[in-house]
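Render LuxR family transcriptional regulator in 3D.
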Amino acid sequence: MTLAASPPLRHLCSDRNKAFSAFGETIVVKTRGADMDHVDIIDAVYQAAVHSEQWPDTLCSIVDYVGAVAGNIVYQAPGGRGSFLIPGRMREDLNTLYLQHYTGNPYARAFEKVRPGEIAIGNSLIDAEAVRHSAFYADICEPQNIFNQLFLPHASLHERGGIGGVALFLSRQQDEHAAEAAARLKLLSPHMARAIDLSFQINKINRAPELPQRLIDAIPDAAVLIDGRGAVLLLNAAAETLLRQADGIFLSRSERPALAAHISETATRLANAIRQALLIAHGEDTPFEGALAISRPSGLPPYLMMITPLAPTAISTWDATDSGARVLIDIVDPEAKTRRQAQQLQHIFGLTDAETRVAALIGSGMNLPEIALALGISSNTVKTHAGRCFGKAGVRSQAALARLIASIPIAEKRAPTPTDSHGRSSPRAQ
């Protein structure tokens, strides 16, 4: 993945107050990093994280602040494919030449051994005098007044055989203060790391705004996404169907629909589990009950619910205003799968609808008195239906019928998920 948006960035960093063209727009830029304090630079870094087109100008400000001549964010992929470079006050023609011919230069090979978070001073790791007599130095470094390099590897770029991070370039005069420049870059390093990761995440979201819905639609069981306030954000088709049954679990009637349970004791456990999951999703360390059974007033087997906190955002202070998904809830209806298998059995052996209902409940593990109570019919009627099921299916016991039903494969069929005018699933209160 690249940080740069499409189309690629093609401009150089501007002079102070000079306008330049980027992404088809004219943007007024003020390059004043030398006059900016630490807080201003950090603010610019996070602004660039959200608006990727600002990275080149932000790099120019960092260059001035640290005391360098130029800089970039670079990723050199194994084999070259997927490599990219975001420039800050660098020559575009030489950037292309570098990516085509010079990614294996001595600085890059030395920087491969530097751990993410550390600041490397290039000339202390290589034979600098030998490099200054190379084609790489003549073609790339000398035309841009580059005498030395500082490099800050980034963890998500500096892996799988590739190398990537933030590089700042020093002139011969600036090299006299290389240690001071490295110290300034070190102060910025944690913010640069978070900002680059945030750019990755925003890029993913911008490229696939429908991804969360597509992910939960791929889950065969009922799936629900909960936002940071505990409200239902998205439902898949199976969850829509399950909630419409209103048998043990439903959407509360409120401004922000939330999952609730019909039975008091279960409702308390559900609310506590979601609250704990949200605390964990926001980065807190708290005890967590992630699995629970949801009893059903109908007497059918309980739903099995798995509650999973999703990873905190890269910048935790933004969580308070972030309405994105924080918790995934997976709801399994053991009886529903068995019911579909029993319907297959109905087609195979010619069961009646009443016999199929009894067979499905036998397959879910209920005994005959429990089935009579769940269906609201007499025990004798249940025994009659069960006996006919045994005869048609060629089995002699409830256990044998249950095993037969469990052995029947079923094909998952999902109805299209109801969407709102923006193409998003719309949770409905019951």
